[in-house]
Write a structure and sequence with these properties.
- The protein has about 350 residues and is mainly α.
- The chain has one domain.
- It contains 15 helices and no strands.
- The N terminus is likely disordered.
- Belongs to the YccS/YhfK family.
- This is Integral membrane bound transporter domain-containing protein.
- InterPro entries: Memb_transporter_dom.
């Protein structure tokens, strides 16, 4: 049985995606090492998230999704950082507006929603991360945007290493055209429900994320952005989708926390962290199609190492705090699906 599971995982894994994302992020961290500029961790984060936002279809759609994410996340991050300078209440209102609009993007399809929700995730992290506070917060946006653009440029170069044969290009063109037609029909059908289900989901996402943001600030929880991130990435249109997602994230977070602690004992300098990031991000992206819990298990230590590149001190208590915030976010996401507009989902079934 174990052999069968490993065979299935290997079949679903995407090694090229892993190498592409790992290279972009690790190179940014190595540049930071050479320049003795730990702030390059933001460039690595931008490169990592841009890789996550990549569309799986044509080279044009891949580039469009990455550039769209780079622009949206940079502008949204700048706006939320600026709003935070007026207090956490102003930041909460800005996050609510941004996340709700991101939730509405779901009506246009999974790929636009993925780009929008990742951009909202970037805003959540930027507004709550210690290094972006104060008047100098905007300075990090330049490095972040640099990482986004570097990942896009590097990815386009790597794609050229695997050119498609004319027959493959012809087939992929027809597949893309057929998919575009199907998406257009589905979107026309989905627009009819934008006034009810789509709006309910977007408002639920905005309210739940804002509730998580306010909770961690009122309780003054360290690393609180992990809770708000969890809400954004877990909450689905129905409780039937959110519950298993929350369980998978909880399991993946526990495993990822253990991995982060183990690596934290070994990687104590920016250089060793940069070297450790490459295989972790490579596995995160390569195993993304295998399952959400596997994805989170490698995503957690990857993001911990990149985000804390400037202060490499990952001990047990530090990792546990992150795990607790993840579980808090999962609980808020589940509560939101149960409390906010549950009747419409039951009627729809």
């Amino acid at each position: 049985m174990l052999k069968s599971m490993l065979t299935t995982a290997a079949a679903k894994a995407n090694l090229m995606d892993g190498i592409r994302a790992a290279s972009a992020s690790a190179i940014m961290l190595l540049v930071g090492c050479v320049l003795h500029a730990p702030d390059f961790s933001w460039a690595a984060i931008g490169a990592f998230w841009t890789s996550l936002a990549t569309a799986p279809q044509t080279a044009r759609s891949q580039l469009a999704s990455m550039l769209s994410f780079a622009v949206l996340s940079t502008l949204g991050g700048g706006l939320t950082i600026y709003a935070a300078s007026f207090g956490f209440a102003a930041a909460a209102l800005t996050l609510f507006a941004f996340v709700t609009v991101a939730g509405l993007a779901r009506v246009w399809g999974e790929q636009p929603y993925q780009v929008a929700i990742l951009a909202a995730t970037a805003c959540v992290v930027m507004v709550d991360h210690p290094s972006t506070g104060g008047a100098n917060g905007m300075a990090y946006l330049g490095l972040y945007l640099l990482g986004c653009l570097f990942a896009a440029a590097l990815s386009m170069v790597l794609w050229q290493l695997r050119p498609f044969a004319p027959e493959q290009l012809h087939n992929r063109w027809h597949e893309a055209a057929a998919q575009t037609a199907r998406d257009a029909l589905r979107q026309l059908r989905d627009h009819a429900s934008l006034s009810s289900d789509g709006v309910h989901f977007a408002l639920r996402l905005g309210i739940a994320t804002t509730a998580a943001y306010l909770t961690v600030h009122l309780l003054q929880l360290p690393c609180g952005y992990w809770a708000t991130m969890a809400v954004l990435l877990i909450l689905q249109p129905s409780a039937a989708g959110t519950l298993p997602r929350s369980v998978e994230r909880a399991l993946g977070t526990v495993v990822g926390t253990l991995i982060a602690v183990a690596i934290g004992e070994l990687a104590q300098t920016p250089l060793t962290i940069a070297l450790a990031v490459f295989p972790l991000i490579g596995l995160t992206m390569a195993l993304r199609p295998v399952g959400y819990s596997v994805f989170v298990a490698f995503l957690t230590p990857s993001f911990v190492l990149v985000a804390d590149y400037a202060m490499p001190a990952i001990d047990y208590s530090y990792a546990v705090i992150r795990m607790e915030n993840n579980l808090l976010g999962s609980a808020i996401a589940v509560a939101a699906t149960i409390i906010l507009w549950p009747l419409t989902e039951r009627l729809k079934k």
